[in-house]
């Protein structure tokens, strides 16, 4: 053997040539190649060795695959990590060992992000919920933003997508849901999303806080004595959970300062009344009332309702002898009474129409029907007549029956009456 010649038995010196390297899914990649020149195999061509590892791990932390078939020129690697860069190397081998490797960098595809972490409720009001969360533990792609869903009464609604850069503050994401319904159960769902996938959901269930009651309906405001007023009202039409307080506000119209009286309430009591004391005689007052409910989120907080329309009244001597001034328009009207009154009026009107039709048919229709049986030559322009007990009767234009009594019967009737008086 000449000096410098390659031994007949040695490891290969040629490298495979990579032709394709790309991902086929979030957990797999595909690689294809061409074998090195035959004269670089230097012995029996047994096949290929493929090794792979993530780019950011130690070089010794590798996995290998042996393909013991020299005709194979491609392979798909599975069970990889999602959206991760891999260094893939391929080399030929013969009985003496391995040839030099060819290495390519390939990345698995995006996958489904895991659920956002630490979804928390920060603040609850009657119409808003403020929440926060952290980025998913495994993004499995480029997170472009988050979707916030909320579910109530079997309806699922989606708020506009939240872009990542708009919501993050020191790696914490915040969002406030608005225009919610008071004292309503909600289920809130948050998911991250990439360009391809929506991630796994994080969710929390809660109930919004109570809202303020609607205005009470004022029933009476009258002068009770020289220095007191009698005030009564009905429970608000709309309230949530309960009515816990009423707040009566009154003021002397000559002054700017106002006074409040808080009284305990019970939703089972429909009408409430009280006497407002220690007032000034010969003064005009303005009085109004509203309901209040204790917060279900914070027991130390009272949610105030809307005041009714203020009512003005004059307090003077012997005021109980005077008719109290009419109350202003109430905040709401008893719609049930209005509907009932409309039904009664409608039924009464229908009854009058039916009665008018019956009278018309009885008076006019019968007359014209009998007149229609005459021969055409016997018809005249006189009003229709009908014979009753031999007397001629007719109806005028108002439907009143007019009767003419034969003179013989009238005379005989007069004579009979005189005879009867004589026998008495």
From TrEMBL:
Compartmental location: Cell membrane
GO-annotated cellular components: plasma membrane
Transmembrane residue ranges: 337-360
Region (Disordered): 371-397
Source organism (scientific name): Anopheles melas
Listed name of the protein: Putative receptor-type tyrosine-protein phosphatase mosPTP-1
Membrane topology annotation: Single-pass type I membrane protein
CDD domains: FN3 (cd00063)
Biased composition (Polar residues): 385-397
Biased composition (Basic and acidic residues): 371-384
Domain Fibronectin type-III: 15-112, 115-213, 215-311
Function: Putative protein tyrosine-protein phosphatase.
Amino-acid biosynthesis listed as a keyword: no
Main localization category: membrane
UniProt keyword list: Cell membrane, Membrane, Transmembrane, Transmembrane helix
């Amino acid at each position: 053997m000449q000096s410098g010649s390659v031994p007949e038995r040695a490891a290969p010196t040629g490298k495979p040539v990579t032709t394709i390297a790309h991902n086929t899914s979030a957990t797999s990649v595909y690689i294809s190649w061409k074998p090195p020149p035959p004269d670089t195999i230097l012995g029996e061509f047994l096949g290929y060795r493929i090794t792979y590892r993530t780019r950011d791990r130690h070089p010794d932390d590798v996995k290998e695959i042996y393909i013991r078939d020299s005709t194979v020129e491609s392979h798909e690697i599975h069970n990889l990590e999602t959206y991760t860069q891999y260094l893939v190397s391929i080399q030929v081998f013969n009985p003496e060992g391995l040839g030099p490797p060819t290495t390519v960098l390939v990345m698995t595809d995006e996958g489904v992000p895991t659920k956002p972490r630490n979804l928390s409720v920060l603040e609850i009001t009657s119409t808003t919920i403020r929440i926060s969360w952290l980025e998913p533990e495994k993004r499995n792609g480029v997170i472009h933003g988050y979707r916030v869903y909320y579910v109530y009464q079997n309806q699922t609604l989606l708020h506009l997508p939240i872009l990542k850069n708009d919501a993050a503050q020191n790696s914490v994401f915040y969002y406030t849901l608005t225009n919610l319904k008071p004292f309503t159960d909600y289920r809130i769902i948050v998911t991250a999303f990439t360009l391809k996938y929506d991630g796994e959901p994080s969710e929390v269930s809660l109930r919004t806080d109570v809202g303020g009651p609607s205005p009470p309906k004022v029933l009476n405001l009258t002068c009770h004595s020289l220095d007191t007023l009698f005030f009564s009202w009905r429970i608000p039409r709309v309230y949530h959970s309960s009515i816990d307080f009423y707040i009566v506000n009154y003021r002397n119209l000559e002054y700017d300062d106002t006074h409040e009286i808080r009284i305990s309430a019970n939703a089972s009591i429909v009408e409430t009344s009280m006497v407002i004391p220690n007032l000034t005689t010969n003064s005009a007052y303005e009085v109004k009332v509203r309901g209040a409910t204790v917060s279900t989120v914070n027991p130390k907080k009272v949610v105030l309702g809307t005041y009714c329309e203020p009512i003005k009244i004059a307090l003077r001597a012997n005021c109980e002898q005077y008719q109290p001034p009419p109350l202003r328009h109430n905040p709401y009207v008893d719609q049930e009474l209005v509907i009932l009154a409309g039904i009664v009026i409608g039924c009464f009107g229908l009854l009058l129409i039916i009665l008018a039709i019956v009278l018309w048919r009885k008076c006019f229709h019968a007359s014209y029907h009998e007149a229609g049986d005459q021969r055409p030559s016997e018809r005249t322009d006189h009003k229709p007549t009908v014979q009753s007990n031999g007397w001629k009767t007719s109806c005028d234009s108002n439907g009143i029956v007019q009767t003419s009594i034969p003179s013989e019967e009238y005379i005989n009737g007069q004579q009979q009456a005189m005879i009867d008086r004589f026998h008495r």
